[in-house]
Every structure is written in structure tokens, then in C-alpha cells.
Amino acid sequence: MSLDKALAESGVFRPAPKGLLLRGEDFFWIVGACIDGTFHFNAFKWDSAAFAALTFPRLLLAWDPTGVPLNPPRSLSPFDIYRQTASDGGSGPTYSLTVGDNGLFGVKPLF
Predict the structure, then answer these.
(1) Is residue 72 a contact partner of residue 1, using CB atoms and an 8 Å limit?
(2) In principle, which of 9, 11, 44, 83 could form an S-S bond with 51, CB 3.0–4.6 Å?
(3) 26 with 46: CB under 8 angstroms?
(4) What is the pTM of this model?
């Protein structure tokens, strides 16, 4: 399967979900692609039907020679989210992004 076909099947060329909030502790894919001189942008947040229907991640992962597994999307408790950063001196996820028509905007601290 070609990457163009996988992106089309995944809905990358449809309008982005304007207003969708993506936080640092969320699982999501963000896609920016220039096809024949036209820029396309979309975002897919787990746990949604759009995320579940994505086909391009399998293709990208098949091309990845590193063997490093993808961090699988899953439900996280506050303990899961904040314990990892507390041990390394961090304070937890510190950003939120909002999906616009043609990209992301509004990088805002969570706290």
C-alpha cells in the first residue's frame, strides 16, 4: 500500500476537527502533508472512531527499522501520568494544543 493511499483511507485529507483539544497526556497522531503543492493537516485523538480507523500508522511502523515499540494508547490514571515526571524532576504534562483549520494553535500550560 502506498503512503498516499493510507493517508487518504485514514481521512487525512478531510477537514481537521477544529477545536479539538490535545493535551500532553493524550495519545494522538498529528499529520501534516504537502501533496502536489497543497498542504493538508489533520489530527486524530485516541479514543475515537477516527483514530481507530487509521491505516497509515501500520505502514509507517512497518518501515521503521529501529524495532522500538510504539507507546500504545491506553487509559491513564493521574498516578500513571504524574508519577513518571515526578521521578525525573518534572511536573507532568505541561501543554495543550487546539486543532485549527490548518494547524495547531494556543500552546497553553495546563496549570
Answers:
(1) no
(2) 44
(3) yes
(4) 0.81
* Burial (0-12, 13-18, 19+ Cβ within 10 Å), 12: buried
Cβ pair 88, 94 in contact under 8 A: no
Query: 78 or 63, which is more confident?
Result: 63
13-57: per-residue pLDDT in tens? 999 999 999 988 889 999 998 989 999 999 999 999 999 999 999
Looking at beta carbons, which pairs linking 80-85 to residues 24 or more positions away fall under 8 Å?
81/25
Q: What is the pLDDT of residue 104?
A: 87
Q: Which residue type does 61 have? A: L
- For the chain, give the number of residues: 111
Do 108 and 96 meet the contact criterion of CB atoms below 8 Å apart?
Answer: yes
Q: How many helices (H) and strands (E) does the chain have?
A: 4, 5
Nearest in space to 26 (alpha carbons), one of 92, 100, 106, 101: 92
